[in-house]
UniProtKB/TrEMBL annotation:
SUPFAM superfamilies: S-adenosyl-L-methionine-dependent methyltransferases (SSF53335). This is Class I SAM-dependent methyltransferase. Keywords: Methyltransferase, Transferase. GO terms for molecular function: methyltransferase activity. Gene3D superfamilies: Vaccinia Virus protein VP39. GO terms for biological process: methylation. Residues 2-78 form the Methyltransferase type domain. Pfam families: Methyltransf_11.
C-alpha cells in the first residue's frame, strides 16, 4: 500500500516520521494540499483530512481537486470542529506570533452538516453524509463534524 501525507508544517511531518518509522510505502510532502492535488497525477482509494487542510482551504477549490484524484468509488472524508452557531462560510482568525511580529491570519471554512452535504453534491460527490459526532465522555462538550463523500461521475480529469 502507498500512503501519502501532505502538510505545510515540517513539525507535523517530523511527528509522522517519529510515529511511523521505516514504514514501507509511506511518503510525506511539505506542501499546500491544494497545490499537491493540482500538480499530482496519482489516483487515490481514499483521501482524508483530520482537522487539516480541508478545514483551511476554500472547498470550492479543494473539493474538485480531490475529486479529480480519487478512483471511482474512492472516498474523501474530513473532520473539523462543528461551526459556531450563526458563523458560517469563510472565517478568519488572527493568531498571535510574538510582540514584534504581525499575527498570522488563518482562514477556515465552517458550515452546518446539511450545507456541507449540499456543497459536496454540487461538486459531483455521491453518497455524501455530514454529521456531528458527540464528544467522548468527560468534561468537554464540543463534538467533531465528520463529512464524507464518494467520487461520482462528474469532475473526472479529462471528462466533460
Ligand atoms: C489543527 S492541525 C491538525 C493536525 C493533525 N491532523 C492532528 O489532528 O493533530 C492543522 C494542520 O493542517 C495543516 N494545514 C492547514 N492548511 C493546510 C494546507 N492548505 N495544506 C496542507 N496542510 C495544511 C497545518 O499545517 C496543521 O498541521
Amino acid at each position: 500500500m502507498r500512503a501519502v501525507g501532505v502538510d505545510l508544517s515540517v513539525k507535523q511531518l517530523d511527528k509522522a516520521r517519529e510515529r511511523w518509522p521505516g514504514v514501507d510505502g509511506m511518503e510525506l510532502h511539505e506542501a499546500d494540499a491544494l497545490a499537491y492535488f493540482e500538480d499530482t497525477v496519482a489516483v487515490f482509494d481514499a483521501v482524508y483530512s483530520v482537522f487539516g487542510a480541508a478545514w483551511f482551504t476554500d472547498p470550492g477549490l479543494l473539493l474538485p481537486a480531490v475529486h479529480a484524484n480519487l478512483k471511482p468509488g474512492g472516498v474523501f472524508a474530513f473532520s473539523q470542529r462543528p461551526p459556531v452557531e450563526g458563523c458560517y462560510g469563510c472565517q478568519a482568525s488572527y493568531i498571535p506570533r510574538g510582540p514584534d511580529e504581525d499575527p498570522a491570519v488563518v482562514k477556515r471554512w465552517d458550515y452546518e452538516p446539511a450545507v456541507w452535504e449540499a456543497i459536496l453534491k454540487e461538486q459531483g460527490y455521491a453518497d455524501v453524509s455530514a454529521s456531528v459526532i458527540d464528544a467522548p465522555p468527560g468534561s468537554r462538550r464540543t463534538g467533531t463534524l465528520f463529512v464524507r463523500g464518494v467520487r461520482g461521475i462528474r469532475g473526472v480529469r479529462g471528462s466533460s
